[in-house]
Structure prediction request, 174 residues.
Amino acid sequence: MSIIYPEATPVQGNTSIAVVASTADLDSPDLSSEINAAGSLVLSCFIRDWNPELQNNQGNAPARLCTTVQLPVEGNTQFNPIEIRYVYDPQADDTSDDNKAKALLTRGSEFYFVVRKGFDAQNTAFAAGQRVEVWKVRMGRQNKVRSGEDEFSEYEISQQVFPLIEPVDGVIVA
Prediction:
């Protein structure tokens, strides 16, 4: 028997997110008419982190008189709101490049987040054949905060992203 020691893909710098207004097919987002369309925005260099959290509930049926062992049973999966934080310029207009994310991700708006993992976010453009997760979401309130308490802090927006459906694994089409 051979031992396999798979190479890991680092997370840092290898997650890209494109925000699109609509997609005709969740498991086949279109590169030209959706991801690269006017009004879409690649957020990879705005957002600090993308780490959706979910819980798989588990429990046990009520014990009966003859029960000597209780085994767990899988329950519902609960998706939590996803907190995102992204930079903005408090002195610039929303038309500024620095405020494109702030201008687009307004409270109550619904989008599709096309999340690509495993390719360099700065140097590899979205392309046909790449695997993605597609999240349909509603944007929460934009909270103007700072990133920390020290001299390295930056002004940023903290915002909740509310999943509206389970994410769909897909492949980008041309």
About this structure: The CA atoms of residues 62 and 68 lie 12 Å apart.
